[in-house]
């Protein structure tokens, strides 16, 4: 039995105060019912009018300062404008409010000292409270006052209210807990955002043939191939076997394309004139937006494309068109699902074409509450600090929470929703440290550091139940596994139709095109790499960007690389699966050896009953499985699965194995270390080679039973088969089964320690090992 994981690395069930606890019927009044309510004071500064001039020219450069205790937020300023419009929202966390008055001041920006134009003061006890779905509070005009509370010229349009994070103004508001961050770029980098992955297609290029090529050297047989380039993807066909000016290939090239289609497909027909020298015989560029789209296995029409060639005339590049052309069948495949995630952790399995989608079966709701015990990720002003944010991915929708500045116990309390089309999918939540608080150009190329991630498989969740757990954030470092903190999540999977969801379990996991026209393993690996690169590039170009290191960590890029630790873990997983069969084998050996005579006698009786009444065998097996399932229901898992350091062998990995896992590809380690690792890999491969050879030997011995490779052994086996056939023809099957069973279960005093004659005969059969060099 496995020991329980260390307490620090375990999953903890929690009971947070979700939704503020306000119940109305069977629903919470807030739509944010999976997070704890956070109260904010909102100030919307809309505009001002008739502001007086303060400088010598009689004009003013106004801006607004919103001050609450020690917290102060400012709007942008306008030059020489007496009727400015800002329409900015400020949010002050109620937990940190220590003042009893809110001061909103209009100032004139000056070189030496900013002048006061006027101010408005609010008593917080008189500020109204707003709870969605109430309509937004209408802003009002307020007359400005000076420091002596006398009315002055100018008015300011404001709206002030208390609300929660469910307020529509929350995502775009300036937050008091981010008061140290300045600049529009930096503020954009800390706000919450929803992203959508680009729509990905597989592009199939079936290169059939070319006609009337004109090679440069007409005195030799051309060695022609086709090279296709799309973006940073490049593939080529094999050299045509028909070495003529009309070569044939009939070969498929597969690419990944993303909407909107920005780059054309460029094909070039090339002739290998020397080992490292190729001559371009013609090119063509094909825009993707005009290509046929295929939704099933029926082939699209093929087309002939004219080839163009550039030649140099008087030092200038000129284009010549001639009769050479290429025959191809090109289409965008809508019936496949473009794999951009690891197949083990897929969050979406739908085909590309929207018309092939089935209705959704439910809704996934995720509440990202808070994190505790985070480690300092960087140093600022001589002390450790962390600016944490979360990213969650499910399907094509990515979400990013706001960044909580300088906190080891950040509270996000943000809730998000996804449509679910298949229960056998995984939602991934990652936590990162924001290294771009001062804009991308000032951070010196730093990357957002990973703090950890959590995966939750929807099929392991009960429907309509709210799971509130604190998950350990575990990250593998070159010096071992490290707990970086804990993240507190609330998850609910709501099913719209239980019947539809049960029906999903009978359907293929991937769209049917994956089974009708399957792609090879190497094709899928290459296409997945291209898809992750495209998704990463597109999301990096968003505003604010979801950075490449974040996307690659969420998509498990590099998980296919060699790891001694992971290989050990997978080996012990196989042993864990086989342990049940091994335990049954040991139990049967004890029955055969009469360790417990009463049990052995009962097994004899059961065996005789099943032989006499064979129609009871299958019902008995299924009834036994049913009873086991009902018995185990009492101990069914009540918590979602989480990262297991012992299963992953992360807590027992040797430092050198971890160093090898974190090595770059190709390696960047010294030659003596690489030589040592290579020798270690050779020794492991040698053992695997021996096991594979033994399996091959056993299979070849089975084949040699009838091959007459050993004439005496084959003659004995053929004679045995004849005798067995005659006996089985005249003897009822039940009698034969009964005799075999009683022989196998015979008492130990009738057994011998030596191997049985059939086993001895089998081991003497020849195999092809004699023919191996």
TrEMBL record:
Cite the residue spans of the region called Disordered. Answer: 1-24
Identify the domain of life.
Answer: Eukaryota
Q: Do you know which Pfam families this protein is assigned to? A: C2, PRT_C
Basic and acidic residues bias (residue ranges): 1-16
- Write down the membrane topology: Multi-pass membrane protein
Enumerate the subcellular locations listed in this protein's record, separating them with semicolons.
Membrane
What keywords are assigned to this protein?
Calcium, Membrane, Repeat, Transmembrane, Transmembrane helix
Q: Which segments constitute the C2 domain?
A: 22-142, 181-305, 345-471
Q: Where are the transmembrane segments?
A: 571-588, 600-633, 715-745
Give the family per the record.
Belongs to the MCTP family.
For this entry, the protein name equals: FT-interacting protein 1-like
What is the name of the gene encoding this protein? LOC104712473
